[in-house]
Specification:
This protein has 317 residues and is mostly beta strands. It is built from two helices and 20 strands. Strands 5, 10, 11, 13, 14, 15, 18 and 19 form an eight-stranded antiparallel beta sheet that branches. Strands 6-7-8-9-20-17-16-12 form an eight-stranded antiparallel beta sheet, with no helix packed on it. It catalyses: alpha-D-glucose 6-phosphate = beta-D-glucose 6-phosphate. Keywords: Isomerase.
């Protein structure tokens, strides 16, 4: 168990513990009682709770908590691909690897240092990884929890290879909802999307907001940096801010597909929605020595939602 110093600082708000499989997990806390739990298996955020102890991420009741498979829920990291590929497992290998804690992370910007707790994780390819995806990289993931309870994630991928490579990426975010038929997403109206249920055919969104009455599996392209997920019954809105991630994936399996997934309850589609900040339509390409950065911040506010400008302080996460 970690030790908490009497004087509050970012690193004192971090505790490392073992899960039931013996894998390290990092717990971040704020002075007000909000918390985030991150597993070194996949660098996956497993839990995010507000200062009232309420869980703000969805996890399936049938989730399998045993490597090498990722847990169904939370926020898995999809890298270096999203979806299915020829040589790699679905959504890439990053979510199935054991990450390491960076003991010498770069400091927070002074404007972010008040009450924020964070952890930096590192992933580098193994010899086996290089057989299937022959590109040397360094992936640094910072997960932070603001004093206001906001969850932020920043990914930095550096090419330390002798030649350029390309990848796609997503923060595969599972949100809990009271009733999927009562939820709407604002900020994606009028955008083009690729429909994965129609061989990735391109369509234009016609609705005033995204609502749900059947299976949805779409990639909205060239999306704004702020979108909102409104839950009428809970009177709660998730505000998702992103940077370096032009696309948004929206997914709900609905009833038929739910019954085909061993690690997902038959009726759980009613209580979840995936809304992913992503880079999918156009791959990220890095030349040797180049670095890409993708940022995500999620906050929860009482409904109703008012659009606000993107917070420039995100660059300091």
């Amino acid at each position: 168990m970690g030790h908490f110093a009497a004087v509050w600082d970012q690193r004192a708000a971090m505790e490392v513990m073992k899960d039931w499989n013996g894998t390290d997990q990092v717990v971040l806390r704020t002075p007000r009682g909000a918390s985030v739990r991150v597993s070194l298996h996949g660098g996956q955020v497993m839990s995010w709770r507000n200062d009232k102890g309420e869980e703000l991420l969805f996890t399936s009741s049938k989730a399998i908590f045993k490597p090498p498979k990722p847990m169904r829920g939370g926020i898995p990291i999809c890298f270096p691909q999203f979806g299915k590929g020829e040589s790699l497992e679905q959504h890439g290998f990053a979510r199935n690897k054991i990450w390491k804690i960076d003991e010498n992370p770069p400091p927070l910007h002074p404007s972010d240092s008040n009450g924020k707790s964070f952890v930096d994780l590192l992933l580098k390819p193994s010899e086996d990884d290089l057989k299937f995806w022959p590109h040397s990289f360094e992936f640094c993931l910072r997960v932070s929890l603001g004093i206001n309870g906001n969850l932020a994630m920043i990914s930095r991928v550096r090419n330390i290879n002798g030649r350029q490579f390309s990848f796609s990426f997503a923060y595969h975010t599972y949100l809990p909802v009271s009733d999927i038929s009562e939820v709407r997403i604002e900020g994606l109206e009028t955008l083009d999307y690729l429909d994965n249920l129609c061989q990735k055919e391109r369509f234009t969104e016609q609705g005033d907001a995204i609502t749900f009455e059947c299976e949805v599996d779409r990639v909205y392209v060239s999306s704004p940096n702020t979108i909102a997920v409104l839950d009428h019954e809970k009177k709660r809105t998730y505000v998702i801010k992103k940077e370096g991630l032009p696309d948004v994936v929206v997914w709900n399996p609905w009833e038929k597909k739910s019954r085909t997934m061993a690690d997902f309850g038959d009726e759980e589609y009613k209580q979840m929605l995936c809304v992913d900040a992503a880079a999918i339509e156009k791959s990220i390409t890095l030349k040797p020595g180049e670095e890409w950065t993708g940022r995500l911040e999620i906050s929860v506010v009482p409904s109703s939602y008012c659009s606000e400008p993107f917070d420039s302080d995100l660059r300091y996460l």
